[in-house]
From TrEMBL:
Entry-linked InterPro entries: Metalloenz_LuxS/M16, Pept_M16_N, Peptidase_M16, Peptidase_M16_C
Recorded family membership: Belongs to the peptidase M16 family.
Pfam families: Peptidase_M16, Peptidase_M16_C
Listed PANTHER family: NARDILYSIN (PTHR43690), PROTEIN YHJJ (PTHR43690:SF17)
Keywords carried by this UniProt record: Hydrolase, Metalloprotease, Protease, Zinc
Residue ranges of domain Peptidase M16 N-terminal in the record: 23-163
Annotated source species: marine metagenome
Record-given protein name: Peptidase M16 N-terminal domain-containing protein
Ranges of residues in domain Peptidase M16 C-terminal: 176-339
A GO BP annotation: proteolysis
GO terms of molecular function: metal ion binding; metallopeptidase activity
Length: 339
């Protein structure tokens, strides 16, 4: 039996602007494309717990426009120049990116500098995106098994803000004032709370000068201070039942609160999750799906987060197989790993 472990060295250049913006550049001239992206150190865990969902809301709101980009034009400019774009928000961070033909690098930097320097945050945009977020919640969170992460968070976290839904409560967004949105933006969206990444068909030295051209004038923001409450250790098993009228097949969900993704344990758990459920040759798939025919599907996820990870084991029973039977079989494999 033999195998290969492949690793790729990625060369990069990194530096900080005087306003605190951290910049990472990676030159790869193998294809005439470039990606400009910004990650803000703000996510669902940040902010007043009576105003949840602000980070995800701003993921949408910051596409509304800027002093130099008309309302709704942001999402027209990019495809009109041969590009694609997207954004996403987790409990820990918000990420925006655009991919362009490499001769549009300067356009990508200008767009992100506009988003950072002087976005338009007004009541029209807030009202528009409030409806967009509500529709997203209906489509994604109210879909079959869409409440999975919500149930996980509610049972694993009691005091840390991970306990709250990333998308937030709609009543919180409805009650929020324009002034509260503006204050949130001022707190978290400064250059010193962000990382700019440019990767692709670039000239590193030329790109450094372009970054300075478009981002040097952005004023430094507030220093973000976090002091989240710590969770007490989980000392006994907790059994919880959640109901979802949108599903017909019950799901077993066994989960553990584990150290954050920067810890050594997190890397070990990544390997364990791969061993247990990655592909049809994995331990749990062969046992529960192929050999014993007790499950339709099984999966192990090590969800990486800054403060605490979630290690979750999911299984869908085949026919009338009890969930407790699946749990017993899964625990048996976990104990083999432990021993």
């Amino acid at each position: 039996m033999s195998g290969h472990l492949l690793a790729q060295q990625v060369d990069f250049t990194e530096f900080d602007l005087e306003n605190g913006l951290h910049v990472i550049l990676h030159q790869d001239n193998s294809a005439p494309v470039v990606t400009t992206s910004i990650m803000y150190d703000v996510g669902g865990k940040d902010g007043d717990r009576e105003r949840t969902g602000f980070a995800h809301f701003f993921e949408h709101l910051l596409f509304e426009g800027s002093e130099n980009i008309g309302r709704g034009e942001f999402m027209k400019i990019i495809p009109a120049n041969g590009g694609s774009f997207n954004a996403n928000t987790s409990q820990d961070r918000t990420y925006y990116y655009e991919s362009f033909p490499s001769n549009k690098l300067e356009l990508g930097l200008w767009l992100e500098s506009e988003r950072m320097l002087h976005p338009v945050i007004d009541q029209v945009g807030v009202d528009t995106q409030n409806e967009v977020v509500k529709e997203e919640k209906r489509q994604r969170y109210d879909a079959p098994y869409g409440k999975l992460l919500k149930v996980l968070n509610e049972n694993l976290f009691k005091v840390h803000p991970y306990k709250d839904e990333n998308i937030g409560k709609m009543e919180h967004l409805d009650a929020a004032t324009l002034e509260e949105f503006m204050a949130y933006h001022k707190t978290y969206y400064g250059p010193n709370n962000a990382v700019l990444i440019v990767a692709g068909d670039i000239d590193t030295e030329e790109t450094i000068e372009l970054v300075k051209k478009y981002f040097d004038e952005v004023p430094r923001g507030n220093e973000v201070v976090r002091n989240f409450p710590k969770e007490d250790p989980i000392t006994e098993n907790v059994r919880a039942i959640a109901y979802d009228r949108n599903i017909q097949i019950p799901m077993l969900l066994s989960s553990f609160r584990t150290p954050g993704f920067a810890s050594r344990d997190s890397y070990v758990l990544d390997m364990i999750s791969t061993y247990l459920s990655s592909g049809k040759s994995s331990v749990l798939y062969k046992k529960l799906v192929d050999n014993q025919k007790q499950a339709l599907q099984t999966q192990v996820i090590n969800l990486g987060q800054v403060d605490y990870n979630i290690f979750a084991i999911l299984a869908l029973p085949l026919g009338e197989v009890p969930l407790d039977t699946l749990l017993t079989e899964i625990v048996e494999e976990i104990e083999k790993v432990q021993n």
